[in-house]
Write a structure and sequence with these properties.
The protein has 12 helices and 7 strands. With 369 residues, it is α+β, with helices and mostly antiparallel strands. It has 3 domains: 171 residues, no CATH class; 53 residues, SH3 type barrels (Roll), CATH 2.30.30; 88 residues, 2-Layer Sandwich (Alpha-Beta Plaits). The strands form 2 sheets. A 4-stranded antiparallel β-sheet has the order 1-2-3-4. Strands 5-7-6 form a 3-stranded antiparallel β-sheet, covered by helices on one side. Helix 5 runs antiparallel to helix 7 and helix 8 crosses helix 9.
Length: 369
Amino acid sequence: MFESLSEFFNPNNDYFIELLYVTINFIVLLVLRSFKSKLVSQPQDKFWGAAMYSSYHPLRMFLFTVLVWHVLVLINQFWVMKWGLSSIPAIQLLAAVHLAWFGFRVVNTLENAFLDTHDSIRLDQTAIIGVAKVCRLLMMVILAIVAFDLLGLDPRGLIALGSVSGAALAFASKDLVSNWFGGIMLYMDKPFKVGDWVRSPDREIEGTVEYIGWRITKIRTFDMRPLYVPNSMFNNITVENPSRMTHRRIRETIGVRYEDIAQVSAIVDDIKAYLQGSELIAQDKTIIVNFNGFGASSLNILVYCMTVTTDWVTFHSHKHTVLLAIADIVEKHGGEFAFPTQTLHLQGNINEASAQLTQTPQSIEKPSS
């Protein structure tokens, strides 16, 4: 028994090198297992930390599959079987596949870490998602070319086939291709990003951007319905991005009575002074307060200014404060806000006119006020 065992481990045997590979792989697997906790506890928002975190599972699986492969080769050589394993570039193929898996894990880890961090707004979520998708696509293409080369196939044929197939596919699915290029333009031009409020005056599109894909963009409308917009549409429509506004505008017409014509100048001056001294109003932007015209029932005063906030809820709170302050100014000067009125002028005897009004109201002519 000992003689057969010693013969099995004889270095002069053809299969001894495979036995050595099996032993080394097994030892490396045990060593890797002992470093698992250290590898998976690395910070994932840094490249080297993400690389070490992502390396454990691909490396363990690569060592295990290589171990299985060497065991198969050892069995083939020990029992002199004719499986033809030597003609298969298994190690190279396994290395390529697991390197691609490792790359995918690194990209996914960094993408999730950057999207989850509090600085994701500064880093631009849309750009992070776009770069991650491009990296994954490139790794898939490189893996396919390397696999063709290892299998003895000409990768130029794959490239040519891909070009011809791509042209045929482009003609057959032009809408899909246009949406794909539309998605690329969205990632490059960045007219909006995830989380922005967008609207289009050309189409009934308004809401918050939730997702930008290669084919469609998902927008959540303000009544909480999801709206799926093909990316190609953004090449042909005008898109507003209110999320990037620097200020919000207050533009109101204040109407006072014609009886208050003498107070209009003082009212205008006090409203302008209030706006120019208010911390709610942007002082570096245009402020206009002027008597702007004679209305049908009122003297119209134009109030035009910009608030310092862009938040929708805060803006309405500031506008509420400004309008109440303007109302106090009008009241302080003894003025009143006008409302639609009509004056009826009656000529002749009042009693006769009253009787005529009672009998035939249709015959009375009401001149304009």
